[in-house]
Amino acid sequence: MEDLAPIIAIASIFIGMPWIILHYITKWKQAPKITQEDEGLLDELYSLSRRLEDRLNTVERIVAADNPDWKPRQSHDRNQSDDYLSRRN
């Protein structure tokens, strides 16, 4: 019985570990991927959001010009959206 422990340990290393690794590699390869259509939709949504942000900034400038006491919202850094563009290219 004492001789059985090292055999089980060696078997778990050489059989169990590769089985677990191959199992998760298979699951990873079966995971859904982003399609070209999805990527195009994301690009279109990003473009739309940039246009909407520009429109909002224009409206805020007009309101600020008409009412000096009005404070515009705190805009996010453009660096966040620029990071997206740099990752895409």
From TrEMBL:
<dbReference type="Pfam" id="PF06667">
    <property type="entry name" value="PspB"/>
</dbReference>
<keyword id="KW-0812">Transmembrane</keyword>
<dbReference type="InterPro" id="IPR009554">
    <property type="entry name" value="Phageshock_PspB"/>
</dbReference>
<feature type="region of interest" description="Disordered">
    <location>
        <begin position="67"/>
        <end position="89"/>
    </location>
</feature>
<dbReference type="GO" id="GO:0006355">
    <property type="term" value="P:regulation of DNA-templated transcription"/>
</dbReference>
<feature type="compositionally biased region" description="Basic and acidic residues">
    <location>
        <begin position="68"/>
        <end position="89"/>
    </location>
</feature>
<keyword id="KW-1133">Transmembrane helix</keyword>
<dbReference type="GO" id="GO:0009271">
    <property type="term" value="P:phage shock"/>
</dbReference>
<protein>
    <submittedName>
        <fullName>Envelope stress response membrane protein PspB</fullName>
    </submittedName>
</protein>
<feature type="transmembrane region" description="Helical">
    <location>
        <begin position="6"/>
        <end position="25"/>
    </location>
</feature>
<keyword id="KW-0472">Membrane</keyword>
